[in-house]
Amino acid sequence: MEIWLNPACSKCRTAVSELEAAGVGYTVRRYLEETPTAGELGEVVTRLGLEPWDIAREKEAREAGIDLPRDASAREAWLAALAEHPRAIQRPILTADDGTTVVGRDAGSLARVIDAERPG
Q: Which residues span the membrane (predicted)?
């Protein structure tokens, strides 16, 4: 399991606590320090079944000057903008070893990725 997080974020801290309580092994990627590439972000949104603008934090995107159409013609521009301004990416993002990926901001999403990580 990999978790993209910002340690200052309460939702990220909650996700880590839930992983630890479930006994699930994980690696941490502090995505503000180890910024994901546009390609990595593209893979993540595909696994999520979302588009790049769906994982953008509205306020941070606005503050970063990301003002792009929310349609397929701007998909690559969104990925590049989020890679350039990682504070605008929703967090935490968790990916289980089987590829199950969630934005872990709620208990249901965390349970889904934890269940995917458990054997059997």
A: none
Give 13-35 pLDDT, tens digit per residue: 999 999 999 999 999 999 999 99
Task: Using alpha carbons, list the distances in angstroms from residue 99 to 37, 107, 114.
Answer: 18, 19, 12
Rounded-to-integer distance, Cα 10 and Cα 94, Å = 15
Strands 2-5 and 27-30: parallel
Count of Cβ atoms closer than 10 Å to residue 30 Cβ: 14
12 is catalytic: no
Helix (H, G, I), strand (E, B) or coil at 18: helix
Catalytic: which of 1, 7, 8, 9? 9
How far apart (Å, rounded) are the C-alpha atoms in residues 37 and 35?
A: 6
Q: Hey, is 78 helix, strand or coil?
A: helix
